[in-house]
Amino acid sequence: MRLLRLLLVLYCVGVFGFLILPLLIVVPVSFSAGAYLQFPPPGWSLRWYRMYFSDPQWLDATWLSLRVAAVTVLLSVTLGSAAALALVRLPFPGIGLLRAILMMPLVVPSIVLAIAVYSVYVRLHLVGSFWGIVLAHTILALPFAVVLMVAGLQRVDRRLEEASYTMGASAARTFLKVTFPIVRPSLFAAAVFAFITSWDEVILMLFIGGSAGTTLPLRMFSFLRTEINPVIAAVSTLLLLLAALVFGLSEWMKRRSVVRALP
Amino acid sequence: MTVAATRTLSPARLPGLLVAAPLLLLLPGVALILALFAYPLLRLVVQSVTDPEPNLDSYRSVLQDPTLWLIIRTTLVVAAECTALTLLLAYPLGFLLSRMPRRWANRLLLLVLLPFWTSLLVRMYAWMVLLGSHGVINEALVGSGLLAHPLPLLYNRFAVLIGMSHYMLPFMVLSLYSTMLSIDRSLLEAAGTMGSSLPQTFFRIYLPLSMPGVYAGCLLVFILSMGFYITPALLGSPQDTTIAVYIQQQIELLNWADGTAMAVVLIAIIGALFVLYDRLLGFNRLLALGPS
């Protein structure tokens, strides 16, 4: 019995190792002084970081990705919240169909979505254009925003809104002071998911990126296909740092909202 | 009538707005999806059977061309293997987590979800660093004298499976964990008191009770694996061409008809699986499994 439990724990430690350790391996590689992938590194240096920060192609790709992700977050959270509001608050006939349409991008594989969007963009000459990329990313992020906002709005006790309204607050004030604080964690979660969706998107970009729309993941993807020099490890380490930041921020938000929800 | 009563948000007072408002709120999102995704997809499918002339050649070739059958088979086999491997890794972990004090389980779950936050490409690169012929594992094995030549770990089916399972593991763990949490511990204790041995208790009581989670997790992972592109494209060899990789190649060659035909096959398989999922477990479960 005890032996069995020990074996179970050891097995699970192994599985955790499988999950986490591969992510960390890129950190030592990024500080390597070697010209190609070597492990352990022959020496330590910051040359790959210097290379990333001095290469306009990497920086342009990063900047484009950031701008696309920012606008995608704004658009998908706005459209997703509006749709969620209608789905939760104003049930009407045919709503099931509309909900199904909104969920489609989540259910259909990205590759299928990509060829459909691409077929439109080829005709409209939107391949590689900023707004083309943003709209396509918004489609991908929209289902997440809808699901999260529906869950958030369902938590809102409407009697609170009615109480506020009855006591003389305007509809706008009621929304700002009552509804918004309650759904804020969901809004934040929707924004985080939209950001990650856009920030990490490759398959769509392979089609609609063109030569003008090289986002960071697209540049990483083509890099990984042709050469593996440690500059990609430096990029990966920076991305891990960013992921840790977003993760920490969202945990902090979650904790804060729990504390606030307590009476 | 008091002042307060007239100020309540009675929906009945706004019949016109009530009809228009939901449509106005839903319209932008739905229109975007319809215009850039649903309608173009429909158009592609229609084109694949009518262009240049009405025929089903693309679909006939999918069904008759042995190479394409091989691609479909590869996709199904890889998805099945990935599902099995993920289940094997996740089941004991889910079990352990569900037995732990909640506080600890929640913290460890955050660790399980950690890979979700990391870019997929970073993970792919990490596996390349680990599995490459001059990668960490091979350098260690050759350097320590255990092997004379590096093992072929990268650019094959094995690498695809490892990379995909790493991606899918959190989905499976979450699905199993949520089911396992709801299993009544006293049932196991009762079995023990009545003289059932440990393996007996596990196989006759725990395993059957955990099956809903197993079904849900396996179907979810299988469905997601079917459409995977990046892992087979980066970690696999040309022999590991999956449906998604094939579609991308065909569209790159501007062979829209064959690419679309294969996309229809992919949608059909996934659609069938979703119907199965719905029958077995209901869609709500799937959405509940999503981001929370």
Structure description:
The complex is a heterodimer of chains A (263) and B (292). Chain A is mainly alpha-helical. Chain A has one domain: MetI-like fold. Chain A has helices at residues 2-24, 26-30, 47-54, 56-89, 95-107, 110-124, 130-154, 158-166, 171-199, 203-208, 216-226, 231-261. The radius of gyration of chain A is 23 Å and the shape is globular. The two termini of chain A are 45 Å apart. The mean pLDDT of chain A is 88. Chain B is an all-alpha fold and 292 residues long. Chain B has a single domain (57-289), classed as MetI-like fold (Orthogonal Bundle). Chain B has 14 helices and no strands. Chain B has helices at residues 3-6, 15-50, 57-64, 66-99, 102-117, 120-131, 136-143, 157-181, 185-193, 198-226, 230-235, 243-252, 256-281, 283-289.
Give the key terms.
heterodimer, A: 263 residues, mainly alpha, 79% helix, 0% strand, B: 292 residues, MetI-like fold, 14 helices, disordered C terminus
CATH architecture label of chain B: Orthogonal Bundle
Q: Using only CA atoms, what is the Rg of chain A?
A: 23 Å
- The quaternary organization reads as heterodimer
Give the overall shape of chain A: globular
* Tally of separate domains of chain B: 1
Just name the CATH architecture of chain A: Orthogonal Bundle
H/E element order of chain A: HHHHHHHHHHHH
* Relevant CATH superfamily of chain A: MetI-like
Overall pLDDT of chain B? 84
